[in-house]
Amino acid sequence: MLADSDVRSDVALLAMRPSVPTAPAEPGTVGAFLHATLRPVLKLQNQLLLAIVADFVFDHHIPLAKASTTDQQRLLAELLARNTKLRYTVVGLVSGVFSAEEYAFYRQHRSELNRRLLELVQQRVLDQTALVLAFANVSSANQQFCP
Asked: How far apart are CA 106 and CA 33, in angstroms?
């Protein structure tokens, strides 16, 4: 049973999410959760997601700016596939804005939803490689001027 303040928090979390056209899916399924929850949360968190990936690019000295477009996408795909800390950060970024009910469903289907979530994130990041590069350049510039 949720307290009134928890219910209000859930309502506020759900109200923040942008509308995303969804494919029909049977309610209560992983597919329905993907369309009704994961896609809107990823859209909501898009800028932050790209900035986090850019920070990992910067912190790991990945030569993204010097690489060709094809190599940039390969480097980002490898980073997202192999860097466990980044993967956990992304999962936390997304699951941190689930309602209590969504989190309960997520816990029951964690491995499948994490797999789908990380696939969606990878596609989103690769589709916006130029923005990741721009964020990485900002991180680099900020680092140079910080004492």
From this structure: 9
- Cα separation of 71 and 46, whole Å? 22
Tokens 């859209």, residue? 43
C-alpha angle 10-12-18 in degrees, rounded to nearest 5 = 110
pTM of the model as a whole: 0.84
Gap between the Cα atoms of 24 and 31, Å rounded:
9
What CA–CA distance (Å, rounded) separates 43 from 139? Answer: 22
Say if CB 76 and CB 53 are below 8 A apart. yes
* Gap between the Cα atoms of 126 and 47, Å rounded: 14
37-73 pLDDT, tens digit per residue, is 999 999 999 999 999 999 999 999 999 999 999 999 9
